[in-house]
Amino acid sequence: MKKEKFETYIYWGVTAFVVLVLLVAVIFLLINWKSAQKMCTALLGILEPIIYGAVFAYLMAPIYNRVCRWTEEIFSLVKLEKAGKKLSTTVATLASLLVLVAVVTGLVSMLVPQVITSIRGVIEALPAGALNLEAWLEQLFRDNPDMEAQVMQYYAKASTWLQDWLTNDLIPNIYNIATGVYSGIFTAVHTVLNMIIGLIVMVYLLNMKDKLKTQTIMVIYGALPVRVANKVIEEARYVHKIFGGFIIGKLLDSLIIGILCYVLLSFMNMPYVLLVSVIVGVTNVVPFFGPFIGAVPSAFLILLASPIKCLYFIIFILLLQQFDGNILGPKILGDSTGLSSFWVLFSILLFGGVFGFVGMIIGVPTFAVFYKLMKELISWLLKRKNLSVQPGKYENLDHIDEEQKTYIQK
Questions:
Q1: I need a labelling partner for 243 at 20 to 30 A (CA). Which of 59, 135, 183, 223 fits?
Q2: Model's pTM, two decimal places?
Q3: CB 206 within 8 A of CB 92
Q4: What is the rounded CA–CA span in Å between residue 161 and residue 98?
Q5: Exposed, middle or buried, 401 (CB in 10 Å: 0-12/13-18/19+)?
Q6: At 322, is the secondary structure helix, strand, or coil?
Q7: Quick check: 61 and 206 in contact, CB under 8 A?
Q8: Strand, coil or helix: 335
Q9: What does the pLDDT look like over 150-183, one tens digit per residue?
Q10: What's the CA gap between 48 and 164, in Å, rounded?
Q11: Rg (Cα) of the chain, in Å, rounded?
């Protein structure tokens, strides 16, 4: 009995010490926030290939697992179980690499020539586009001279501002722009090299993921009490379920939207079909705001070619967003996060403001995990006070009788 009591004191003492150390570390980080931020940025830069490899491995894991399982079944039929296990991992690794390289190469080979052609076309069509836009505005408001005068006045101001910007800002700063382009090219080359190293890291992670998983579980059970470790493992599985289901589902949803956009825009004879479809498909990864983020540059490109087609495109994007948000998205994703529309919007704005575009993508599943943990914490606190965890008990609640634990309604 004394031994158990002594072990309890030791456990709570160690817990208090760890909490105190964490509190001191948080205070130190807050005081030296800028230095800590620089250190984190430098560390992330060093670990960038590892991060790329981990992301690639996470996205390719379903393909790797499925191919591995299929090849093991094939080898087992021909009585090659031992050799088949090693060969299946090799085949699965090659399949994952081929799929990833094929997707990236296909996108680049389609997108880069289209971007170059589109930029050249925009530069060549800019003067004619401005005249077409002016003629279209005059035709649109020809029956309302007062409105036409106001609109053309704003149009003239916009044209003057654009000319002044080209003459006074763009051309004098062309050296700075060239320097920025050179810096951008250097950053792009650095990113490509990191991604190539990331592919190597992905191969290692895919082949040792089961071993890493086993080692992590051993560390958790070794460092924590069994009850706490069980809870940590349970929550880790939930995180994997939320992130895996949401991100992979969202990628599939965006691929379908991009293909659908390409087919329908081709049918509508829109300009820059491939470029616009890729922009819409990629930005659609961002929940809620994605279609509108992609629609802005796409609409501008189409506006230069044909103002009336730009109007048709905006209507098309609104309809496409409704189809994706109400039919296709729920069909693929289901209620994978369990969040209401308000919390989805809140999480996108919060994480997007802190982490940028990446935050907008991972914000919803991350907040869904926090939301579940907070929900479980509130339920645990209520149970400790012998209070109900049923939400219906608290609707129109006036107060709770402290002695009888009865819920008095208004």
A1: 223
A2: 0.67
A3: yes
A4: 50
A5: exposed
A6: helix
A7: yes
A8: coil
A9: 666 666 666 666 666 656 655 555 555 555 555 6
A10: 41
A11: 29
